[in-house]
Amino acid sequence: MGGFTNDFSYKGFDLNILIAYQYGGIASDGQAQFLSEIGNRQFNTLRELYEERWTTPGQVTHVARAYNGGTEPNGVGRLVGSALYLNTDMIRVRTIQLGYSFSPELLKRAKLNRLRIYAQANNPFTYTEFRGYDPEYRETATGIIPQSKNFTFGLQLGL
Fold first, then answer.
1. What is the average pLDDT across 115-140?
2. Structure confidence at residue 128 (pLDDT)
3. Where are the beta strands (DSSP E) in the chain?
């Protein structure tokens, strides 16, 4: 895990960006595991899993045959193995802020010391192949809420 930040400024404009990354992680996706128990629960499963389930001999698929009770007789269960362990490599833009500060000469007439407008986004982009809610969450991920995306617009005044 790591990250980097940088600040840029040019003629009154300023840009700040914070990017985080992680590489080499593996996590169990408990939410997908729970929802992929075809024939084992009294609720509907994910549509993707239903449509891609094994149905005929010779068929190659990553989803086992639906079976009432979840496990075929003399079987080991569909949740054994590495199918639900996922790569958590990711790059996430945590914060990006763009602002503009008006020149002091312009502000003297309005009797202001500082006037800055800005727009900021928190967690606007995450690039990952992880199918779960959040590649940074290290537990079973059952019922977690993903990190929110926040967008803020502001005005800073100095009197």
1. 86
2. 92
3. 2-10, 13-22, 26-28, 85-87, 90-101, 114-128, 150-158
